[in-house]
């Protein structure tokens, strides 16, 4: 079936830089998208979500952008900190209320 | 206890053993999920329970048997597993599984399973 994918498996940045993590999805019927962060030894934690009727949503130091034309989702992290080092997953959900479908994940490494 | 708690955190079992994974949520949610997380693969949905009723079984082999006695507890019974079943098994819960599709999941820390 269709699934969410990510462009890059790893991303390395310096502390203080802005990070951009990308995700391409293939299911045009997807209505809702979420970004999760998974630190080592922990389960995924919710970061931010966005509905398909929006193209941008901001949280604390994070922004999610949705481009439905090219089916692209991105997570921007401002002033990246060492504590942001983790695996980041995007996930999609379709209108029918099925459970979230996850992409493979991008490992973000932040060096001081 | 708060959030979603999974036990045991680590489990090693032989292919002929029978074991169970347990999940408990203290969030008042009505939907619970099992996901499998293998290295270099996306999280794979296994089972969904909504108000104690199984609503999804994602073609999971019968050697995995879920049980949801109430909205707060979810079990995954394991029997005659294969080495390729070794993975991190994640439990999650959400308010409910709605037609909106806005199922924000809260995950437990996972149970790391190794099958010898």
Task: Describe the model.
The complex is a heterodimer of chains A (112) and B (116). Chain A is mainly beta and 112 residues long. Chain A has strands at 4-6, 10-14, 19-25, 30-38, 45-51, 56-58, 62-67, 72-77, 86-94, 101-102, 106-111. Chain A contains no helices and eleven strands. Chain A starts with a strand and ends with a strand. With 116 residues, chain B is mainly β. Helices cover 0% and strands 55% of the residues of chain B. In chain B, β4 (31-37) and β5 (44-50) form a beta hairpin. The radius of gyration of chain B is 13 Å and the shape is globular. The mean pLDDT of chain B is 90.
Kindly name the structural category of chain A.
Answer: mainly beta
Q: Classify the helix fraction of chain B into a percent range.
A: under 10%
Radius of gyration of chain A: 13 Å
Number of H- or I-type helical stretches of chain A: 0
Helix and strand sequence of chain B: EEEEEEEEEEE
Detail the topology: elements first, then pairings:
The complex is a heterodimer of chains A (112) and B (116).
Chain A (H helix, E strand, L loop, with lengths): L3 E3 L3 E5 L4 E7 L4 E9 L6 E7 L4 E3 L3 E6 L4 E6 L8 E9 L6 E2 L3 E6 L1
Chain B lengths: L3 E4 L2 E4 L4 E8 L5 E7 L6 E7 L2 E5 L6 E7 L2 E7 L7 E8 L11 E2 L3 E5 L1
Parallel strand pairs in B: 2-11
Antiparallel strand pairs in B: 1-3, 3-8, 4-5, 4-9, 5-6, 7-8, 9-10, 9-11
Observed structural traits:
heterodimer, A: 112 residues, mainly beta, 6-stranded mixed beta sheet, 5-stranded antiparallel beta sheet, 0% helix, 56% strand, B: 116 residues, 7-stranded mixed beta sheet, 4-stranded antiparallel beta sheet
Give a brief outline of the structure.
The complex is a heterodimer of chains A (112) and B (116). Helices cover 0% and strands 56% of the residues of chain A.
